[in-house]
Request: fold
Amino acid sequence: MGEPAQVPERVPLFQVRGVTKVYAMGQVEVHALRGVDLELYPGELIVLLGPSGSGKSTLLNILGGLDTATSGEVRYRDWDLTHASERRLTEYRRHHVGFVFQFYNLIPSLTARENVAAVTEITRHPMRPEDALTLVGLGARLDHFPAQLSGGEQQRVAIARAIAKNPAVLLCDEPTGALDSATGITVLEALERVNRELGATTALITHNADIAAMADRVVRLADGEIAEVRVNPHKKSPREISW
Amino acid sequence: MRALDRKLLRDLWGMRGMVLAIALVLVGGIATFVMSLSTYDSLIFTQERYYREHRFAQVFAGVKRAPESLVERVRALPGIDKAEGRVVAAANVQLPGFTDPVIATLVSLPESGEPLLNRLYLRQGRLPEPGRADEAVLSDTFAEAHGLTLGDRVPVVLNGRKRALTIVGIGLSPEYIYQLPPGGLFPDYERYAVLWMGRRPLAAAYDLEGAFNDLVITLESGSSPLAVIDALDLLLAPYGSHGAYTRDDQLSHRFLTEELRGLETMAAVFPTIFLGVAAFLLNVVVTRLISTQREQIAILKAFGYSNAEVGWHFVKLVLVIVALGLALGIAVGVWMGRGMSGLYAEFYRFPFLIYRLEPWVIALAALVSTAAGLAGTLLAVGRAAGLPPAEGMRPETPPLYRATLIERLGLQRWLAQPSRMIARHIERRPLKALLTVLGIASACGIVVVSNFQRDAIGYMIDVQYRVSQREDLMLSFVEPTSQRALYSITALPGVRYAEGFRAVPVRLSAGHRSYRTQIQGLEPEGELYRLIDTELRRIELPPGGVVLTDYLAELLGVGVGDRLVAEVLEGSRPLLEIPVVGLARQYMGVGAYMERRALNRLMGEGPALSGAFLALDPEQEKAVYAALKEMPRVAGTVSKSTAIESFNRTMEETILFFTLITALLGGIIAFGVVYNSARIALSERGRELASLRVLGFSHGEIAYILLGELALLTLAALPLGFLFGRALGWFLATQFESDLYRIALVVAPDTYAFAAAVVLASALISATILWFRLKRLDLVAVLKTRE
Reply:
């Protein structure tokens, strides 16, 4: 069990209580989460650290409504995500959450601008796709297809796609995992800037401990449980990080 | 345009090869459907229009001789609209330089010009002028067969007197669309002609001045044909009537109807099979196509697209493919339908053709193909979208492979690693493998059934003319003739052997059902005409009764032991009661058979013959023809080789042409299926195969893994396809029973071989395409992305 969060005066955006997740992988049962308690606050940037299989992706997926918990409770504002219907979860993902995946998951047949538009077209108060791409420094590569972009650029399109809906939550699963360190830093800069300028609560998974330096709080997972929650008194900017 | 729609278009373009192949499968199904139904509709519509515009009669009656004044009394009968008396006679035509006997039917035209009923359609020239005894209009088929044109003279023997008729017109009539020579089963344009000439000279030649021997009638709407026929029979009986009959028994109309009915059956059965198979394949292919989009579905869902939106996206994808197939299929179908109905119209000598495509045909084609596409899509999208997105984006859990049966049997040391991969892959996804096999098998079955009719007909011809009818020539006498005539024929040089028969035209009835046919009296131990059933067994002719073709027995609703009433339609027209003593299953025609002497006894006559079967010395065939032409008793002859030839031509131009086209479309479907199976297998396993390349497998080795599986499934599908094709053939045969023939369930080895060749060629072409695609596998991409 982790220690309780240190910022009691604020109302949490997420409340996670006793969440477990069990997968049936073929004939094996995998306990991905074994009772997790956690709060996330508006505007904060947290980093989820932990080795492979520690349950960080599972936790992120549950927070994002991509998956549901086996037991326990997840609240987002006054929504109960654990027992939400498929329809409710779709609406939640559509209007509130932005995702960034390790492998970008862009739609290969759409240009950068169109990949972003695919999302802005279905949400309520989106940015213009061009603005979102400018925000991540890709204003000049609007009409390139994913195959014409470098890995870092693709990941920044993915970030633009995630933020273009003005999400309340930005969830990033190993956003730099497939990138070299210099490219990774530009991606992290983009994320940090979005977090700062748009005030989206950002949760970022990494197994690179150095990246944790840019977080408000660092949550370390091990074996499906929270091993440690650490408040970072001196946030570093991504420029100052190296690995 | 919305981004997702743009994705749709680009995805479609990206997989255009597959899209085209799927569309091709549909094109095959829909084109067959549209072609068949529109051809049938067009012919029926054209036939009706032709009948109406040329006032084709509804009731017909022949008499020996009746005074012209009787026509007025006929008109006065209740229910009759128009009636016209005329002279119809048979004659021999003696074309210089053509030794085969030629028979003509001569039909009188009123001196006033156009007949009231059964009007002529003149392709060229004009009607004979009143008072010109030597002018005639000639049937266009005969004119064409002999290259005769306006102004040519045709020598005709009219009632024993030779006269040269000048052709002033070339025409056709709704009455002689299907031109059967007397005694023949199939049209023979070279040896049978119809000539229309002035009433007066024709009547004079046959001693029928002021009289008629043929009556054509139309009915007031709503009047009962049966009541009219009864009244007519009563009125005409004293004049040597052969019995009035309706259009249904009119020779040309009846055969045309039977043929069109055959076409209707094909138009119903083939497209149903094709469209059904195409729909099934579309379903399978779409299901698999969408399964490969699992990850994209998960991404869209992660962004907040709902299941319905994702479903709609893929539905649109499939609808575009369906629309493409539909548009192409309809276009091809209309094109072929036009061509085919044109060919049929020419074959049947319709003066014009009105092509018709009923809207419901298109609507039904659209409905079936859309439904099949949607069912597959929704099933697959439902399955993919039912997963939580987090799971959808993860690579599928490593599938649980097991040691295969082969390995459990300890045979693995005979299989190299790649072969084991093939075996395990098939065994792990048996359903998918099964669907592929079923898809290829149904395509194979379609090709089999397309050629099945050719085999069946070939077999039936063989049975009919090599086993059953072994004569070289059949001749018929002008009227029943004493058996002595046979001796003089046997005595002709070149005749090896002759066997007489008696044929009595009758109307058989049982209860309210009746059927016009002939009772054939045959020699019990006949050598030239052996009555045999479908098992090739000789049909015994028990004395004292009649043996019926089982199809006729069914039509009449009688069985062995029942009694039939036979109304004889010649001579003194006695009414006879005959017991049914046996049934025989036969492929061709329907008949009633008796022992010849028993029939003679029943008719109360001596050993009379209606005709004879002859075996000839091939060297002297021409001489025999020439001698027979000089015999006044001989009305006509039918040579077997010409009969087979004209049968084959009839079939070639109708049914077999149709099946050729369907075989072609079946081949297209087969290719579409095989190619799709191969392409989808590649998209499902591309990553795995690329990984193997990275690990050092050669291009040949990974190609073996992919193509080996395809080969295995294709080979497994072949025997199944043969079975399926045979089952479809059986279905077709049951649908095809008619007065003219029943289809034998015979599939020649060639047909299986051809179907297998089509499937294997499709597989080979697909494999070649895949071979090159595998060369271009992006190995680096595999390393970059996950797994």
